């Protein structure tokens, strides 16, 4: 290959306009879809799946998946080679990601403490995928507020995700629940205050 | 030979002649060695000249580098061997002397990358990685307009890792691998690894039919390789389970594999 001294070509990733996700090589490896028995390999397998899921979610801007539905999607079902990752195995990968802070099982309302997280992990069907962790989203929102000089002003949650002003930012159109997690982090740090009721939440940034 | 010289003086004479032969021989040997030495010196300076004029090509063109290395080894100069373990203890290799370290460093840097890639992939392939796959991964890691790498370079770089013990290039069947664990493949294991090159996988039935082994033997070898991390099981087959070589993972995605 000729030496390329020019600037690196821009990566097409995360430009959600391109619909086809470039699957990695392991996606075409039949045994990748069977839970490996060797512990070392299994760990490597989980790591690879985790990377694949996050890349896939980032590409399609998926903030949450429903395990039963996702099991039928091309993420976990490679129809080309007729191999699929079974729901229990998917769950295991997601649990692996949860320990890494890259996924979170949606808890039933009310059970909001960490102790029940494991219990929810066993049963929950909806999972948040953190290709950006809530802290990272919080940082993005904070930077946006800083940049647009909106400290001290009040923004609605709707404005943040759907408003004209946030068009072009990473969090435009993001999942409300994930955004709330991010905003709550800012609240804890004393950087924001949330008020209002369920459907018309407002945020004030400091 | 005539029968004269039976007298006592004959002993003396024979002693003298043998001494003369010996001294003549040693002087011949000396001149021979001297001639060889000058030849070598001339050759060395020529090689040096050659290496200097073509240093750029040697560094940038992998096939040229390979040819040069092959030429060196053909004439018995190991360009990579650091001479401090040989008699002429100057401490640097021929590469380093000839090219001001750059080629030498090239291989050492490459070796470092190889160690990195082997370490990163060991969990998925059990420490056995295809030579060309390794090359591909190493080249992918070095972007900033770096020169391309050939299989030959990888082979040489792995050679420099020999003192570490566990690194070696092994040939199984018609494919070369770099082994980064201190574990030798048994004959049976090598046979299975080789069999897996054909379709990318093996199965108990396949081994039984092709190698004529009984089922227990097939299972044992497969289990051993699985335990070593060198095979991945695929249970979603229509029939019996298939055991895949993780090297396939590398080959499947990209086309245009430059097979050497």
From TrEMBL, chain A:
InterPro entries referenced in this protein's UniProt entry, alphabetically: ESCRT-II_cplx_Vps25-sub, ESCRT-II_cplx_Vps25-sub_N, WH-like_DNA-bd_sf, WH_DNA-bd_sf
One Pfam family from the record: ESCRT-II
GO biological process: macroautophagy; protein transport to vacuole involved in ubiquitin-dependent protein catabolic process via the multivesicular body sorting pathway
Domain of life: Eukaryota
Assigned keywords, A-Z: Protein transport, Transport
Keyword Transport among record annotations: yes
Protein's recorded name: ESCRT-II complex subunit VPS25
Organism of provenance: Trichoderma harzianum CBS 226.95
Automatic annotation (TrEMBL), chain B:
InterPro entries assigned to the protein according to its UniProt record, in alphabetical order: ESCRT-2_cplx_Snf8 (IPR016689), Snf8/Vps36 (IPR040608), WH-like_DNA-bd_sf (IPR036388), WH_DNA-bd_sf (IPR036390)
Keyword Cytoplasm set for record: yes
Gene Ontology CC: ESCRT II complex
SUPFAM superfamilies, per database record: Winged helix' DNA-binding domain (SSF46785)
Keyword Cytoplasm recorded: yes
Compartmental location: Cytoplasm; Endosome membrane
Gene3D superfamilies xrefs: 6.10.140.180, Winged helix-like DNA-binding domain superfamily/Winged helix DNA-binding domain
Keywords in alphabetical order: Cytoplasm, Endosome, Membrane, Protein transport, Transport
GO biological process, one term: protein transport to vacuole involved in ubiquitin-dependent protein catabolic process via the multivesicular body sorting pathway
Membrane topology of this protein: Peripheral membrane protein
PANTHER family reported for this sequence: EAP30 SUBUNIT OF ELL COMPLEX, VACUOLAR-SORTING PROTEIN SNF8
Complex formation: Component of the endosomal sorting complex required for transport II (ESCRT-II).
Family listed: Belongs to the SNF8 family.
Function: Component of the endosomal sorting complex required for transport II (ESCRT-II), which is required for multivesicular body (MVB) formation and sorting of endosomal cargo proteins into MVBs.
Name of the protein this chain belongs to: Vacuolar-sorting protein SNF8
Native source organism of the sequence: Trichoderma harzianum CBS 226.95
